[in-house]
Amino acid sequence: MKTIKGPGIFLAQFAGDQPPYSTLEGMAGWAAGLGYAGIQIPTWDRRLFDLQRAAESKTYCEEVLGIASRAGLRITELSTHLQGHLVAAHTAYNAQLDGFAPPELAGNVKAKAEWAVQQLLWAAKASRNLGLTAHATFSGTLAWPFFYPFPQRPAGLIDEAFKELARRWLPILDAFDEAGVDACFELHPGEDLHGATFERFLTEAGDHRRANILYDPSHMVLQQLDYLAFLDLYHERVRAFHVKDAEFRPSGRAGVYGGYLDWIDRPGRFRSLGDGQVDFTQIFSKMAQYDYPGWAVVEWECCIKHPETGAAEGAVFVRDHIIRVTDRAFDDFAGGGADTALNRKILVI
Fold first, then answer.
1. I want to staple 55 with a disulfide (CB 3.0 to 4.6 A). Which of 125, 141, 156, 346 is the partner?
2. What mean pLDDT is predicted for residues 215-242?
3. Confidence bin at 42 (pLDDT 50/70/90)
4. For the purposes of burial, counting CB atoms within 10 Å of the CB of 230, is it exposed (0-12), middle (13-18) or buried (19 or more)?
5. pLDDT tens digit sequence for 135-177
6. Within its chain, how far is the Cα of 212 from the centroid?
7. Reduced to 3 states, what is the DSSP secondary structure of residue 263?
8. What pTM did the predictor assign?
9. Where exactly are the structural domains of the chain?
10. 5 pairs with which residues across the strands?
11. CATH number of the domain at 5-347, out of 1.10.3720.10, 3.20.20.150, 3.40.50.1820, 3.40.50.1110?
12. For residue 336, pLDDT beyond 80
């Protein structure tokens, strides 16, 4: 068994225009001061990171690693959540997604997708240059507008969507394979990969070994999916981990669809660590049991608690939940070496 690495923190929700949140060096010092051991870097935020430069310059990557190291930190993963979403985005969301890409691409679905693919190809090289083994991303959303089977879907519509999703991602997955890095899809409502659909994608992608999972139980709570059984089923593909809490409290007015309510009023909502319903004791136990090889990374999203408080509490929460795995069996004291003759005697054979 392996002891999980951590705590790490995803910087995306905390980056800003004011110090220390406006530079990677400032954020590294901030995270270290809270007790974190690692940082997950959003690659779309040029205040913190230059993705193209990282793909093309090992010297730049050494500088980035040096910034983390001087703060006593390691880089856990790079993230291309926004770019990954654009690899396969349905046109229904075209206007909403303009903010995910450069302004000059606004309104142009094809150009945004091409830009996103290039971003992912750079991310594979940048991850390799940084010595990373996992990468965090989203799958995109070709089929999501049709998640509910009414109006009735034309026969073969979903099959075609997943064939196209795999077609777009296979060259990217091959690039990650060449780089020796796992592409970890966060299974997330609003993405085509949000539960059993991962299996469908995997089938279309030929069980590609670099198609893996970023496990985040909070999204499973909001879907009412069994997040513990999920680990029993898919642990071999889990290569990244967002530690994020959530709660689901349905009412007579709203359930899993949320009723178009604001986050504060939704039955399902994200919470700071320890304030929700996720059983992290069992999650960390299963992660240890199944030899999860990566980091436990806090992703803070909460509509109630202040982010600074959530970040500070998150480091302690994860550190307290990481299990230092045993190197011996608890009943070794009563055992002895194997003795074939004695065993046969006991069995009377």
1. 125
2. 98
3. very high
4. buried
5. 999 999 999 999 999 999 999 999 999 999 999 999 999 999 9
6. 10
7. helix
8. 0.96
9. 5-347
10. 295
11. 3.20.20.150
12. no
Mark out the alpha helices in the chain (DSSP H runs). 24-33, 51-56, 58-70, 81-87, 109-129, 157-179, 197-204, 217-223, 227-234, 280-289, 307-321, 340-347
162: its two tokens: 């997943």
DSSP symbols for 164-204: HHHHHHHHHHHHHHHHT-EEEEE--TTSS-SSTHHHHHHHH
Q: Please report, in angstroms and rounded to a whole number, the separation of the first and last CA atoms in the chain.
A: 35
- The predicted model gives 71-78 an average pLDDT of 98
Look up residue 293 and give its two tokens: 């090889």
Query: pLDDT (tens digit, 9 = 90+) per residue, 15-25?
Result: 999 999 999 99
Q: How far is CA 52 from CA 60, 151, 348, in A?
A: 10, 43, 70
Name the 3-class secondary structure at 268: strand
Report whether pLDDT(94) > 70: yes
Phi and psi, residue 79, nearest 5°: -125, 135
Residue 333: pLDDT over 90? no
Bridge partners (DSSP) of residue 10 are 40
Taking alpha carbons only, the member of 32, 19, 103 closest to residue 68 is: 32
**pLDDT reported for residue 338:** 82
Q: What is the DSSP annotation of 27-38? A: HHHHHHHTT-SE
Task: Tell me which residue of 76, 81, 166, 84 sits closest to 118, measured CA to CA.
Answer: 84
Nearest to 214 by CA among 275, 156, 297: 297
Compute how many other C-beta atoms are within 10 angstroms of the C-beta atom of residue 251: 9
How do residues 210-227 score in pLDDT, each as one tens digit?
999 999 999 999 999 999
